[in-house]
Amino acid sequence: MFGKKKDVVLQPLTHGAVVIAPPVPDKDPDAVVAKLQKKKIKEKKVNRSVAGNGILFGIMIICGIFMSLPLVMIINNCLKPLDEIFQYPPKIFVKNPTFENFTDLFNVMNDSWVPFSRYILNTIIITGLGTAGHVIVASLAAYPLAKHEFPGKKILFNMVVLSMMFSWTVTQIPNYMIISWLHINNTYFALILPAWQYGMGLYLMKQFMEQLPTSLMESARLDGASEYKIFWTIVMPNVKPAWLTLAIFQFQQMWGNTGSMFLRDEQLKPLQFALQQIAAGGTARAGASAAVTFIIAAVPIIFFLACQSNVLETMTTSGMKE
User: Fold this and answer.
1) Among 12, 163, 214, 216, which is 20 to 30 Å from 126 by CA?
2) Long-range interactions of 170-176: CB distance < 8 A, separation 24+
3) For residue 202, what are the contacts with CB-CB under 8 A and spacing of at least 6?
4) For 276, phi and psi rounded to 5 degrees?
């Protein structure tokens, strides 16, 4: 019923007295704890054979090849001469690479009565202001929804979620009517202002801000910081992966916007519109069209690669708890 008693060791002292020493443990407690931890790790480890790992890696490699194949074809097509572009059956890789397609593209753009630099400037203004404004407006609107309590909070958030259910085709006519009523048609703001009100950005930022510990904001308020200072110095740096991801999505959407529905003046239209007009030139502009396809796809990819390290990094508050 009871366990075996430990042996007691008697240690003599110099004056003839005897003291009872504490029982000696059978095992080191640290070794026992380490053994239990190793046992838990072994239990959590997935029991998978070498053949299973090989099959999974093989499937991943095949999927990666199929996913990268369109990009490989775009790069090779822009370097192909015309005889290889019209070759049948088409070949994936280029045999005689050349930059004549880009030369033809710039020659066509220079022959236009609107300078090529003007299209680039329009694109920078529209894409830059549209992306930056959307990130700022979405973050400012998401902060009170995530970290403050006020009447009608759930109703407002539900309205934002409901707006995400409607496609751009459904809201196209109401957007055009609102822009016409504001008298900003045929201006840059006809493309910039609608970009600021997409509900997806607000939803994404709110979900990330809810993960931040409220104690961070409360500590800053005790130190006398205002809400704007808390937002810019505490909230935004901690949700940097979120707003960089949002910036990538918004940049891609603004980069692909031709503005043909709102812009009538040729001097206000972005580069995307001019490139699509060149690509629609038929077989006579097949080489320039291949170069256009490469430019359209390359710019968003470069922007993503520039922000990739920040997007994939772990949030600094991932280990914090209330």
Assistant:
1) 163
2) 172/261, 176/261, 176/262
3) 138, 141, 142, 145, 160
4) -70, -35
Model confidence, pTM: 0.70
What would the DSSP string read from start to end of 39-92?
HHHHHHS----HHHHHHHHHHHHHHHHHHHHHHHHHHHHHT--HHHHT-SSPPS
What is the SS3 assignment for 18?
A: strand
Instruction: Provide the token pair at 60.
Output: 């991943």
Q: For residue 106, what are the CA distances in angstroms to 60, 84, 101, 268? A: 40, 21, 9, 19
Residue 243 CA, chain-centre distance (Å), reads 8
Cβ atoms < 10 Å from Cβ of 130 = 25
Provide the angle, in degrees to the nearest 10, between the axes of the packed helices 286-312 and 271-279.
140
What's the confidence (pLDDT) of residue 132? 92
Say if residues 134 and 199 touch (Cβ distance below 8 Å).
Answer: no
Which pair of structure tokens corresponds to residue 312? 């994939």
Instruction: Characterize 171-189 residue by residue with b for buried, 16 or more Cβ atoms within 10 angstroms of its Cβ, and e for exposed.
Output: eeeebeeebeeeebeebbe
Q: How many CB atoms lie within 10 A of CB 276?
A: 15
pLDDT for res 237: 87
Query: Minimum mean pLDDT among 75-79, 262-266, 280-284, 313-317: which range?
Result: 313-317
Helix (H, G, I), strand (E, B), or coil: what is residue 193?
helix
CA distances from 32 to 3, 5, 35, 44 (A): 19, 21, 5, 19
